[in-house]
Amino acid sequence: MSCEETIADGLGGRNGKSRMLKVAQVAQRLNCSISTVYGLLDSGKLGHYRCPGVRISEEQIAAFLEGTKKEQGPVSLPRPSSPRPRLKHITI
User: Which residue, of 20, 38, 64, 86, is most buried by count of CB atoms within 10 Å of its CB?
Assistant: First the structure.
């Protein structure tokens, strides 16, 4: 049994939702570079498994994306602290 099969069995098996992806596949899915994915792995922001290579499950990608989701609140523009100065040299 390969390392991928062992990990997949622990996460729900081959027929379950879990699919183990390589770093290049994750980079393509997240629309970023491979080095960015390695940076996320090294920082601990993106969970992964180490076998003969690095593998990331779809659940780990989903958890990462959920953690980076920004809640949409009401949009408010900052008000200027003081009124705009009148430009005396311009006449309209």
Answer: 20
pTM of the model: 0.61
Residue, of 65 and 83, whose pLDDT is higher: 65
Q: Does residue 89 form part of some domain?
A: no
User: What domain count does the chain have?
Assistant: 1
Q: Is residue 81 part of a domain?
A: no
Distance CA 10, CA 16 (A): 10
Is the residue at 75 inside a domain? no
Domain span holding position 57: 3-68
What is the structure's pLDDT at 38?
Answer: 95
